[in-house]
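Changelog note: in this version the structure field was regenerated for every chain. One regenerated record is shown below for reference.
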Amino acid sequence: MTAHGGSSSGVCFVVGARPNFMKVAPVYRALRAVAPETELLLVHTGQHYDDLMSDVFFRELGMPEVDLYLGVGAGSHAEQTAKVLLGVEQVLLANRPRLVVVPGDVNSTVAAALAAVKLQIPVAHLEAGLRSFDEAMPEEHNRRLTDHMSTLLLAPSADGVENLRLEGIRSERIHLVGNTMIDSLLEHVGGALASEPWLRWDLEPQSYGLVTLHRPSLVDDGEQLERAVAALVQLCEFSPLLFPVHPRTRKMLDGLELTDRLYRAGVRLAEPLGYLDFLGLEAAARFVLTDSGGVQEETTALGVACFTLRPTTERPVTVTHGTNTLLGSDPTQILRIADLLEGWRPPAQPVPLWDGKAATRVADVVAAFLAQEGRPSIASATRGGS
């Protein structure tokens, strides 16, 4: 498959995993509105590659048809990164865009950024500056490397700006734009609630807990996963639980014969959900238990109590804002949720710049960059350049 165009004046978006889609969709539309003459190329690496994990999100977010699909699929971190690096390099050689936009912190993000800078094509990192300071997280390395390869660093919150400055990145490269994922959320939450997805599981709004668990540090460790299941069984006595199960988690639950234990306890297990169904369930939940990064942000915007089964977060604004509680990595801490919910109230004010207008601010930054005469050299865009 070949891309259309071939112009050297366009912008190439590279996405690979579900959270990327929600971040990019509003930016793609905003840039089309602000700079209609700019050719846009949309590349999907296929890091998340089945319909429920990928294509349905594109349809629901109103994204255009993908220009190029690389079909990377599953694999080790090294294998996945290498395949994206090779695939994106061929796309960039054929199209020579003026800017490559990469969102988030997955393997596709860092591989696409590396492919671009090796070809002296500037990179814009959407969601720059997030740091968990947890070196055991593969995503932490992806974030750092991508930021230090990028020319435009588009930060979702003030803590991201501060992290970038502390790492020696020049201030003129950093732009506080807000959270484009929240743009998607605010655009779609009304319709998501109107569809009342909770009725499919015989639930009432504000009566249930929504669970998402998928990180390898939890689900690939049989002992950890077994403790998590035991805690969910007990938590189900406090509140009904709905658990859309990630394919990775489902495989491990089935292999350890833990799935039936959850069913017998009354935990409602579901297949992975589309964006609108999940958003509706999330917005109407009494609380959410997760190990996901994006869910921490979404619950903060929705004013829903979130409990994160991780010792650290790259999104500390969700904790300081008062919606998110870090439970640590010990699954038995799940049992604290009942007590922590007592007297909990959502914050009165939203996070600054999480206002549904972040994509417009991003588009303005990108359009201003494209309007500059000539390209900034890669040397001037690196850390410590003058």
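Spot check on this record: The longest strand covers residues 11-15. The domain at 187-341 is CATH 3.40.50.2000 (Rossmann fold).
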